[in-house]
Amino acid sequence: MTPRPYLSYSSLNTLGDFSPKCIERWTEQYIYNKKFGTNRGMAFGKKMAEGLENEETTGDEVLDTVMTLIPKFETRDKILEDDKGVEVDYYDQEKKEVIKVKLPVLKNGKEVIPILIKPDTNKLDLTAFKEYKSSQTRWTKKQVDESVQITFYAMGMYLKTGKIPYDIELVEVETRTNTEGRIEATGQIYRHPTTRSMGQILNMMVRAKKAWSIINKICEEELL
Q1: Is 39 domain-assigned?
Q2: What is the spatial distance between Cα 116 and Cα 212, in angstroms, rounded to a whole number?
């Protein structure tokens, strides 16, 4: 019994290194619906993500121009479904309703863990995907190569296809703080190609199984 019948990157990321502090924060957020504040950078990132997802202008001339230049594939910001997966309930924030989605699963003994991923853009055959990030500090190659989100998404695709996507890229939209203290796009885009190995996928599977086990334990203690 879990608050959400699937494991998402945001849930995994909140659990962090599985320390007591991270577990407490997960409990507050997912069990008791505590809201944590967002900073200006996060607000800007959300505005960019919503503009890209809905193909709408934001009113920010530079950002709107940048969004037309960002590389995209056929599918954008869609939940990855798997006909051979497990059907679960998912609350669609845009539609404001619960919908049924069939998610790829990670097997853990007799148990199956539904995995929810929603790449920013991906090819229909799942051989490639891109994630978009806005940042005032340039991403390093090491950060991109070790991005937990990218590895988690690659794992989700592997669970459906049995193959690791070979074309993966983090697309960085550079931002800065203007004289009025607001975050704005500089107009610069940086593309960071990366890959994922079978070892990274297997390690992510281990981490996902541990996270799911901890989530179930929290729910048993808090809800039963």
Answers
A1: yes
A2: 13
Residue 102 or residue 220, greater confidence: 102
Residue from 37, 38, 36, 43 nearest 177 by CA:
43
Note the pLDDT tens digit of each residue in 38-95: 778 878 888 888 888 778 888 888 888 888 889 999 999 999 999 999 999 998 887 8
**How far, in Å, are 9, 55, 112, 137 from residue 170 at the CA level?**
16, 20, 30, 14
With tokens 């969004």, the residue in question is 67
Residue-wise over 71-105: b if at least 16 C-beta within 10 A, else e? Answer: ebbeebbebbebeebbebebeeeeeeeeeebbbbb
Give the DSSP letter string of 89-104: EEEETTTTEEEEEEE-
Tokens of 45: 């990132």
Whichever domain contains 82, its CATH number is 3.90.320
pTM: 0.91
Query: Which residues have C-beta within 8 Å of that of residue 20, sequence separation ≥ 6?
Result: none
The type of residue at 10 is: S
Domain assignment of residue 168, yes or no: yes
Range of the domain at 81: 7-223
165-174 pLDDT tens trace: 999 999 999 9
Residue 1, domain member (yes or no): no
Q: Which of 5, 68, 10, 7 is nearest to 211 (CA)?
A: 7
